[in-house]
């Protein structure tokens, strides 16, 4: 199996061409429900963006706005440099250079594979149409099934036909709405790899909606995390996971625990002791919450520790340990599959060397010490006094 990783460095660059897609302060409300609120997003040509968030956060609304299936209340949408929706203009979906791939594939049951793929090409001359159908079917490795009907195909093959149909008219952007969720687990990974490989190979710009955090992180050049109709963070997968911009992103994208902590003279301290140094915070004294992910938390049995293992979950390659601290708060820690500390074991809890944890003030990540207008440190909380008594006397 080839594992494909993508980093920001490898995201495509196309300085000359206009962005493939621009959302500029785009909003859509349905009565009291917020579908999208002042969305700002620019997608570069060839970029693959994943859109993720909890149910009802506005992912489908965003795709529908781009496709022209909804009209924005406010804001401007541009596709390949052309305004397709603003306060005055509204281009109908069939005139937008957008390809759509849905969860249920939405193939025409009475048309063969080749005719399904040709569907969006009806304005091209016949010979050209036939050549293009052949080309995209080859791209998705389905040339040998051109004369079959959708019901004669597997789920994965149907998904590839849907992708070929979306790509055939050379759209500026392909929108994929949970394209793999109807496939069973074993097929999903393969179809996902094939689809992203095809999108990359053809330099196609794509926005892919998913519910799956791992999928969002592993296939996108960029991940857009939505919550309540707003974009909470749009960043490389590494940044979204390692430097979440809000408490919501930290907890939604992977497992995260939060402990009240304090940065005092550049030392980050919390209930488990000194976590790390915080360069640049030498003259601050600030109450924060520290975000700790289970892979950053180290454990070792220690009969003198007040912390106890409270639950153990076997996940195969790794074992998740839940640890109850003296305060009653819980941290989780991934351990290798051969390490299992039974429930009740007293354990010393530390943070793995090299960890640079995210610090939150008022649920937003901070990288510099917050200050009042007069320059005084801010954010002291009752927890700071508790920590003073415990660690900093
Ligand atoms: N046609 C509609 N009429 C009224 N409210 C709507 C309509 N479409 C969406 N909404 C509301 O807008 C909000 C965003 O919905 P949307 O379908 O975009 O979310 P989503 O993130 O795609 O959710 P899911 O992951 O469950 O598909 C929700 O509160 C939803 O109830």
UniProtKB/TrEMBL annotation:
SMART domains registered for this protein in UniProt: AAA (SM00382)
Keyword Iron attached: yes
ABC transporter domain: residues covered: 21-253
Enzyme Commission number(s): 7.6.2.9
Stretch forming the signal peptide: none
Region: Disordered, residue numbers: 364-393
Superkingdom, natural source: Bacteria
Gene Ontology MF annotations: ABC-type ferric iron transporter activity; ABC-type quaternary ammonium compound transporting activity; ATP binding; ATP hydrolysis activity
InterPro entries (alphabetical): AAA+_ATPase (IPR003593), ABC_SmlMolc_Importer (IPR050093), ABC_transporter-like_ATP-bd (IPR003439), ABC_transporter-like_CS (IPR017871), ABC_transpr_FbpC (IPR015853), Mo/tungstate-bd_C_term_dom (IPR008995), P-loop_NTPase (IPR027417), Transp-assoc_OB_typ2 (IPR013611)
Annotated protein name in UniProt: ABC-type quaternary amine transporter
Annotated source species: Kocuria sediminis
């Amino acid at each position: 199996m080839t594992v494909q990783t993508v980093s920001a460095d490898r995201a495509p660059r196309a300085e000359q061409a206009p962005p493939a897609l621009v959302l500029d302060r785009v909003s859509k409300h349905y009565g009291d429900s917020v579908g999208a609120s002042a969305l700002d997003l620019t997608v570069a040509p060839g970029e693959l963006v994943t859109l993720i968030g909890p149910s009802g956060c506005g992912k489908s609304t965003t795709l529908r706005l781009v496709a022209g299936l909804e009209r924005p209340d406010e804001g401007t949408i541009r596709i390949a440099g052309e305004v397709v929706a603003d306060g005055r203009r509204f281009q109908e979906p069939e005139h937008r250079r957008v390809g759509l791939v849905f969860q249920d594939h939405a193939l025409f049951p009475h048309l063969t594979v080749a005719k399904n793929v040709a569907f969006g090409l009806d304005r091209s001359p016949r010979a050209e149409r036939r050549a293009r159908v052949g080309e995209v079917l080859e791209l998705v490795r389905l040339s040998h099934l051109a004369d079959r009907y959708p019901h004669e195909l597997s789920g994965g093959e149907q998904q590839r036909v849907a992708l070929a149909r979306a790509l055939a008219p050379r759209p500026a952007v392909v929108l994929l709405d949970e394209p793999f969720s109807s496939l069973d687990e074993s097929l999903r990974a393969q179809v996902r790899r094939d689809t992203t490989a095809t999108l990359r190979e053809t330099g196609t710009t794509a926005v892919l909606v998913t519910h799956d955090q791992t999928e969002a992180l592993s296939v996108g050049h960029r991940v857009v995390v939505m919550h309540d109709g707003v974009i909470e963070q749009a960043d490389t997968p590494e940044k979204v996971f390692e430097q979440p911009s809000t408490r919501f992103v930290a907890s939604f994208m992977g497992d995260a625990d939060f402990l009240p902590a304090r940065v005092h003279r550049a030392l980050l301290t919390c209930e488990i002791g000194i976590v790390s140094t915080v360069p640049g915070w030498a003259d601050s004294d600030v109450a924060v919450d520290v975000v700790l992910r289970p892979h950053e938390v180290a454990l070792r049995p220690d009969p003198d520790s007040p912390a106890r293992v409270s639950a153990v979950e076997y996940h195969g390659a790794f074992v998740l340990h839940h640890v109850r601290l003296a305060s009653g708060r819980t941290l989780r820690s991934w351990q290798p599959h051969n390490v299992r500390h039974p429930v009740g074991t007293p354990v010393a809890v530390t943070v793995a060397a090299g960890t640079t944890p995210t610090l939150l003030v008022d649920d937003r990540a901070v990288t510099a010490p917050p200050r009042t207008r007069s320059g005084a440190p801010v954010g002291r909380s009752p927890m700071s006094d508790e920590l003073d008594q415990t660690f900093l006397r």
